[in-house]
Amino acid sequence: MGPVHLNDTKEATVARLIGMLREAHGRGAKWVTFPELALTTFFPRYIYETPQEYDRFFEEGLPSPAMLPLFETAKALGVGFYLGFAEKVTEGGETHRYNTCVLVGPDGTLLGKYRKVHLPGTKDPLHKANFEHLEKRYFEVGDLGFNTFKSPIGRIGMCICNDRRWPETFRVMALQGAEIFMLGYNTPTLNIHHPEPAHLRALHHRLSIESAAYQNGAWVLAAAKCGAEDGFAMIGGSAIVAPTGETVAYAVSEEDEVITHACDMELGEYIRRSVFDFARHRRIEHYGLITSQ
Ligand code: ING
Fold it and tell me: Do you know which Pfam families this protein is assigned to (predicted)?
């Protein structure tokens, strides 16, 4: 998905998502993965002081009013989808804000929800560049953990953006039987935390999703929101990765672009039954440090 600018309305952005959904459906797709924070610009690049200033980026209710046309169209077309959005919710009498994604089945059923666990960046501005990365400022750490969700095409796991850089993310879901991982991302081209060549952003993105696919014998569907949002560049590289670790489809533009592939859901079987047969080969008695530190 191409850039979403500060002044783009949610209605116009949702209309773009619906256009891509129709394109995918036209090609025979049964599932669509949309990006992280797909309804708005990547607002954590900006400094806001009060919720009154940034609540306009958040959705309340699932589906929220802005999402409704997308939910209705997807149900009418019989297409399931993953959608990333900024979630504002009142639970236990308290207001919480998360970087969230939802999984909706082809019949419109809410199959699952995930709240981003690995929030990159800082809580307070660094003032080191002409943009910030303030996810720790606007979102709480997700409280739902990493789960998998039963669907007509197999067990689906979800995560969001920075989560893909952490192998634990995928292993925890693979241990719950995930056969497909869906994830959206918004990755700035410039790293404000440490000077590094721009090409490394694309390399680290590909490394993360290709190794996740192979090491867990699962499909990875990764959707970027990319291009220059009000001049702030974000990497593309949306991809469909087979359980073998091979990227079988990838986006070539930084605009709205649909990539599709007929994913053979049996392909991961031999990997999960041989090289990554967790029951036979993993030695958890030697892994304690991973969860204790
Ligand atoms: N974006 C970036 C990502 O993890 C980032 C942040 C980029 C962190 C590069 C570290 C290095 O892809 C989001 N939204 O997490």
Answer: CN_hydrolase
Are 83 and 67 spatial neighbours (Cβ–Cβ below 8 Å)?
Answer: yes
Tokens representing 70 are: 């997308």
Q: What is the ipTM of this complex?
A: 0.94
The residue whose CA is least distant from atom 9 of ligand 1 is 191
Domains within the chain, CATH numbers bracketed = 10-292 (3.60.110.10)
The answer to whether residue 210 is catalytic is no
Q: Where are the alpha helices (DSSP H) in the chain?
A: 10-26, 51-54, 68-77, 135-138, 167-174, 199-216, 269-273, 278-281, 288-292
Give the chain's length.
293
- Rounded Cα distance between 206 and 222, Å, is 10
Best of 85, 165, 200 to mutate for ligand 1, by most ligand atoms within 8 A of CB? 165
Task: Please tell me whether residue 234 adopts helix, strand or coil conformation.
Answer: strand
Q: Which of 215, 221, 186, 184 is nearest to 201 (CA)?
A: 186
Residues 6+ apart with CB under 8 A from 289: none
- The residue to which tokens 């091979």 are assigned: 246
The answer to whether residue 101 is catalytic is: no
Task: Report pTM.
Answer: 0.98
Q: Which of 161, 179, 225, 257 is catalytic?
A: 161
Query: Of 40, 43, 133, which is best to mutate to test ligand 1, by the most ligand atoms within 8 angstroms of its C-beta?
Result: 133
CA-based R_g, the chain, Å: 18
Residue nearest to ligand 1 atom 14, measured at CA = 186
Give the span between the Cα atoms of 160 and 182, in whole angstroms. 8
Ligand 1 within 6 A of 187 CB? Answer: yes
